[in-house]
Structure formats: C-alpha cells, structure tokens
Amino acid sequence: MDPKLGRMTLKEWVAIESDSVQPVPRFRQELFRMMAMAADMLQRLGARVASVDMGLQQLPDGQSLPIPPIILAELGSDPTKGTVCFYGHLDVQPADQGDGWLTDPYVLTEVDGKLYGRGATDNKGPVLAWINAVSAFRALEQDLPVNIKFIIEGMEEAGSVALEELVEKEKDRFFSGVDYIVISDNLWISQRKPAITYGTRGNSYFMVEVKCRDQDFHSGTFGGILHEPMADLVALLGSLVDSSGHILVPGIYDEVVRLTEEEINTYKAIHLDLEEYRNSSQIEKFLFDTKEEILMHLWRYPSLSIHGIEGAFDEPGAKTVIPGRVIGKFSIRLVPHMNVSVVEKQVTRHLEDVFSKRNSSNKMVVSMALGLHPWIANINDTQYLAAKRAIRTVFGTEPDMIRDGSTIPIAKMFQEIVHKSVVLIPLGAVDDGEHSQNEKINRWNYIEGTKLFAAFFLEMAQLH
Amino acid sequence: MDPKLGRMTLKEWVAIESDSVQPVPRFRQELFRMMAMAADMLQRLGARVASVDMGLQQLPDGQSLPIPPIILAELGSDPTKGTVCFYGHLDVQPADQGDGWLTDPYVLTEVDGKLYGRGATDNKGPVLAWINAVSAFRALEQDLPVNIKFIIEGMEEAGSVALEELVEKEKDRFFSGVDYIVISDNLWISQRKPAITYGTRGNSYFMVEVKCRDQDFHSGTFGGILHEPMADLVALLGSLVDSSGHILVPGIYDEVVRLTEEEINTYKAIHLDLEEYRNSSQIEKFLFDTKEEILMHLWRYPSLSIHGIEGAFDEPGAKTVIPGRVIGKFSIRLVPHMNVSVVEKQVTRHLEDVFSKRNSSNKMVVSMALGLHPWIANINDTQYLAAKRAIRTVFGTEPDMIRDGSTIPIAKMFQEIVHKSVVLIPLGAVDDGEHSQNEKINRWNYIEGTKLFAAFFLEMAQLH
User: Which residues are noted in the entry as Mn(2+) 1-binding (chains A, B) (predicted)?
Assistant: First the structure.
C-alpha cells in the first residue's frame, strides 16, 4: 500500500469521534461506525472477519449502552508458518478543542512532519501501520511470511470492558493457533530511538475511609473534643511513604526481584537525556540524580502515590468545617513479583496497626478498589529477537529495551489466559502526548513503523 | 407581628441563596437581593435605613466581586432611653442537597416542629426574631422601651469583609449614642435551657500550598521519581496535632490563661447531660470523659482542625493522578490571651521547620487567610443582668452562663472599637446544626426567642 494512501486512511479514522470514556449515545454510535469501518477494511484485505457482539455496558447511574463489537480477524492459516496475533484499539480519550488543542482534534492536521489528532498515536496510527504492513505484501503479490490474526476492540480507554470475557471464551478457538501476541499501544522513551517494551507495572488502588458520623461538624462548636476523622486520615496517609519515596508498609519490598549487575547494565544501555526529560516534564528536581536510578524507580521498584481525599473541604476559600466522613485514596504501582492479594493484606494490616495506635473512636474501613498485576516478559523469546532484528534493519540501531511505569493490563491478561509470549512494539515518540491535548504521531514514525512491522513479519518467519 | 407571618418571612429569606463563602457572581447577586429585602422590611417598620456600599472584595485569584451593602438602621432616638444596637448577618454557609440534606436547603421545611433550611438558625431566624419583637411593640401601638439600632451585614461567613472598616468609620456617628450591643449568632448548649454567652474563641485559618508544577501527573508515568506534593502536604498536616487533640506547634499554649479553682466551679454549675450531648451529636466517644473537661476544651483551650485539601482528587471513583499543586487548609481556635500574629509566626515557623527536614524540591507557601481574636466579657454588666431577668420571665429558669467555641469576631471588634458592653443572647438549640447539613431552628425557639427579645427590651428600660 502506498504510504500516502495510509495517511489518508488515518485521516478518515481520526475524523471519527470514537470516544469510549464519555458514556453518551452519540460517541457510542461513532464507536460502532469506527469498528464497522475497520472490519470492512480487513475484509477487503482478504481476512475472515468476525465482529463479536459484546452486549450492554451497565453504567453507574443504572443506564446501559451497547458495547462496540470486538473484531476477530484472520489472514492465512498455513500450519508451517508461525501465527502472530495483533492487539489494538480504536477508541480514544475525550478531546475538546477548548481544552487547549491548537487544531481540531478530529481533523488530522500535518504541521512540520507531525500529524496532530486524537487517536493519531493512541492507538489508530499503530493499528493502521500494522494493516498497512500486511497490505504491502498483498500489493506486491507476495505471500505473507506469517499467519496474521487481529483482535481489535473499542473500549480500551474505558477499561477494556468485555475484552477479558471474550479472550477467555476464545482461548481454545481463535487463540488456539496463536503463537505470539503483539501490542503496539505505548511510546518510546526517546524522540528518535525505537524501543521494545518487555514489562509494565501493575496497580493496587486503595480507599481508606475514616468516619465519625455522616454529617460534618462546625469546627468552633466541636473543635477540641473530637477524634477528628481528618486528623486520623492524615496520620494514616502520612504513614505510607517517606520523603525519599520509600514505601513504609512492612513487607512491601519482600517479593521485589533482586537487582543484578546484569540488569543494571540494561538501564545503562538506554538513551535518556535527563536534562531534556526534566525540562519537558517541567520538574525542578527528581528524587534521584542518575538515569539508572530514575529508570529503576519507574519500572522495577514499586511506588506509592496519594491521589486525594473525598468528603473533605476541597473548594477555594476558607470553610471552618470538621468533615464527618473522609475517604483517602492512594495506589501502589506493583512490580515483579509482587502479588496483588499479598499487597492488599500488607496495606490493610499496616493501616489497621497505625489506626489502632491512635485510640480513635472513629471507624476505619480499608478497601482495594482495583488490583492489576505487573507484567514482565522473557526478552529472549523469539519475537523479541525478531523485533530487535527488524529495528536494526529499518532504523539501523539497537532498540531501547524498556518497561512502562503505567499499567497495560491486557499484556498480563493475554499472558495469563492465552499462555503465549507477549511483546509491546511501540511506534510513537516520547512526546506524542497520548491522553493529552495536541496528541500527534510523527509522519516519520508512522511510515517507518509500517516498514518495521513488515520487516518484523519476515524476521518472524525466519526465526519461528 | 403574627408569628405565622414571621415564619413566612423566614421561608422567604431562607429561599435566597445568600452564600458568601463561594465567591461567584450568582451567589453575590443573591446576597444583594437579601440585603435589599431586609432594608425594605426595616423601612416598612418605620426605621431610618442606610444601605452602605462597601466597594469591592479582592479575591486571591486577582478578580474582584462587589461586597453586599451593610445595613445601618435606627428606630427611636429618645435621649432618656437606653440605646441597644443589634448585630446580625444574612449570609449563609454553602449548602448543596447532594451533600446529605434530606430537604432542599433553600426551601424552609417544617418537620415535627423543626424548621429546616440553610440559615434558619445561623443567622436569619434570630435576626427575624429581633425584628418580630420590635414589630410586636409597633403592632400593639406601644412605645419601644429602648431606642433600637441595627447593623446587619452579608459577609459574616466569609470573615466579615469590610465590617470593621465601617464600624471604625461610624464609631463617632452611628455608634456614638449606642449603650449596649446585642448579638444572637450562636446556640444554647442544651436543647431546652436558654443561655447567655460571655466569651468566644478566636480563629486563625491557615492555607499551606505545596507545588511541584501547575499540571497534574500520571501516577504510572511519574510515580516513584517525584517529590509528590501530596506526600509533603500530608506530612505537614500530620505534624500539627496528636491523636489526643494536643496541638504540636511549639509555644502555642504559652499565653493560654492559667486555670483556677474558681473557674472550674463555673463549669460545674452548667447543666450538660453528656449522654444526651453525645447522642444528639451522634458521637460515639469524645476525647474527654467529664463535663468540665469537655467545656474547657471547647471554650478555654485552643483546638486545631484540618478542613481539607484543594487541588487533589476529591471526587468519587479511582483516578490515578499525582496532583501537581495542593493547598491544605486548617485552623486554630484561639482563647484568651492568645495573639493572632504570634500564632501566625509560630505556625509558619513550625511548618517551615517540618518542610525543610523533608528535603523536598517542591515549593511551600504558608499563609494565614483569616485571623480573628478571642473575646471575653464582664458578666456583671447591665445587659447581662437584664438578659437573665428576661430569661427568667419567658422561660422560668436561670440561663446557662456559657462561652462559645466558635468565633464571633464582631464581639471582640465591637468591644475594642465601640467600647461598649457586648452580650450574646442565643436563641437556637444545641442540635440546630449550623454550618452543617440539615440546619434547622425549632419553631418553639423561634417564637419564644421573639418573646425573649421583647422582654429584654422591657428589662433594659428598667435597669438602664
């Protein structure tokens, strides 16, 4: 396929307001249109395509909305070839020009080689790059070096509603012939150097409620004679992490993989300009001074962030209230081999311990609202070697071997349900601004990314 | 005036969303409407009324909003009579039905003899009771036993912006003929026994801002390498008070008046059913077990309350955000002879000390948003004796001689600028829930309170 044609398709796709985060019928219709357009394109490519109806999404307000179908598609079923399954999503984060977009977020606009538009890098561009790579073989009337499968959803930004259910159901059908799973839904850590991602952190999100009564108090009328819930909560939250970022929950580091010299060397090999990173993030000073320490604390050590408090006075101005019931929110990013349910027990025990020492008459309830496992792959798997070779061919360089500090739960899910090797091959540059205003993908990344996937097919055929 | 008519006016007044705390044009317009309605009512009563324009309120964000006019009104100028000046306010605390109100906060709703609505007890009900008492003499075509003046403002809940300036200016004009000042802006400490208040605590309201950058961060992408502002803020707030309510700011107790045996006896004389107090407040357990300790910690010892945090995640649900800039809010209730500017220095020095030990790269700014002095009166002044007699007449009992844990800064201000005796004659019951959800005034309190003020006028005429 002619790259220009690929860019035209990206323009068409970005023009669809396939926002899955705002649960309103208009965007949901756009999502259905988006999935139909993609299914049609795959069909024209010669794939067998199933658009699987996933039923209704129940909303917190009691209403429901239809879930866009998940596309399962197959191209080739030669038993002598390896089968690579590509995962992607075609829904996007909300975007509104009034929030600071310099161009219409739903009109793909090229400025200085950058293609601006919502979904350009997350994840419509990479999905199209993969399709473009496949269609290049078709256009050249060459056999595909590998069998290709696609699983494409439209609810990723809303938590991949229904995806796990489908993967579980298709484990021994659609996924039975799959050898490798490729995801391309994150970014490089540099503007010019490609990367391969072999791990992501998990996340345990906690809520700790401290309650005296449901109503608030006036601080003049009751201040001085109460165990105030905010005093308890601030003490609880203050017991979690010290000023150097070290988590104070006993036992929390017990299962963290020991650091080896070999692993340190992998961080040394990565290109990261700290000064540029600091400036582009608008941060005066990080907790650590070296590249290696920073990468390790983003990727291979857990971190604890306090997000906020629900139920306290949070508006501008000066209100003299003693909140009667408050909920503190914090989360711990998990790394191999931390276990979600062990962490839940450690955090709960720690908070109960701190709380009991206060002799407060308030009630405390700890709950884990979300528990997502960390994921790590074996970087000596076939497809990691193939991806490295393809990057050398297309970009003339070794890739940065990176992890992602955020959670990409589908990587872990595929690994656990399908039991096949998963790799993340990002195409976008570090400054693409996914989820942010003025999201873009560079034209260079989009075109070279298409070439990278084509080269990857050829390398996979050789190594399989 | 017919009490039913009085209740109807209270309904009209409560319907006005005269919220002075949230600095937005909509509420400010409501405040202007409120003040105009009150001025009109006083005029119809035959008073000479001046609505004094107080200019603009400068907001922290650089914007400004008009300050509602302060009403000065006079009824009678007989030089043989004493002149009593009544202070009240018609602005209210914020109220939102979603916060747990069982009825619309701006629709006065009677349930079992209780009149629910924002401002019903604080302070629209008592202001109307005073007006009703005056209009009762008018309706009976009797001469008023005393000359009456009114000073009514609309910014009390926002710190009485501009009031002091006006009192200072009117010191030798409007206030020159005033002999006594009556305020009715607090509550009894019982559900059925009236009280007279001779002291109030002051208040120092602090904001402590911790900033990394203006934008928030994603906790996956940055968690682990930042000095997170929330961790700093939680540590700062956690350094302020221990679990027994003891304030940890060095030197804060130095100027608190020493306790004598005689003073302890005054607390012993007060009727307070701890069990009932606990139940009506829906509190499982207070910090202290005896009546005397509880009264002392509400009235004669300082207290510190943490109100909340601005800029953090405060909504329901689980958002993985690292807030970039957060503002913690807390206040210290001051008692004789603590000094506002000394407290400001002590708190600032303490927070700077705690913050510097954290070695954080964030910026911290401490500011005192509000500094209000404590107040204490001589309980042998004429109007204290008159109020006691009036209470005996209307309620058939001795009043509780109490202080108020809240701040009524105007008491101190009137005492210092006008140099006249100030008394607080509360009308509302202990469970009225001022500043809280489901604020109410009992119908009984509202009607007997009107009678009490009328009897007070007669006693004042005798004793003056």
Answer: 122, 157, 435
State the DSSP H helix or E strand holding residue B75, giving kind and residue range, or none if neither. Answer: strand B70-75
The gap between the terminal CA atoms of chain A, to the nearest Å, is 26
CB < 8 Å from B in window 326-345 of A? 329, 331, 333
User: Per the residue annotation, which of A91, A170, A400, A439 is the catalytic one?
Assistant: A91
With beta carbons less than 8 A apart as the criterion, state whether A108 and A120 touch: yes
pLDDT in tens, B191-224: 899 999 999 999 999 999 999 999 899 999 999 9
Alpha carbon A295 to chain centroid, angstroms: 17
The Cα of A129 is separated from the nearest Cα of chain B by a number of Å equal to 25
pLDDT digits (tens, 9 = 90+) for B7-39: 579 999 999 999 999 999 999 999 999 999 999
The Cα-based distances of B38 to A337, A379, B6, B69, B452 in angstroms read 69, 77, 13, 11, 22
Whether the predicted interface score ipTM is above 0.85: yes
Q: What is the CA radius of gyration of chain B?
A: 23
Nearest CA in chain B to A282: B213
Cα separation, B297 vs B313, in Å, equals 33
Strand partners, B114: B111, B442
Q: Active-site residue among A17, A153, A156, A209?
A: A156
Query: Rounded to whole angstroms, what are the CA distances from A334 to A125, A256, A304, A407?
Result: 29, 9, 9, 9
Neighbours of A258 (CB within 10 A): 5
Q: Could you count the other beta carbons within 10 Å of the beta carbon of residue B139?
A: 12
- Nearest residue to A326 via CA among A214, A164, A197: A214
Distance CA A216, CA B375 (A): 26
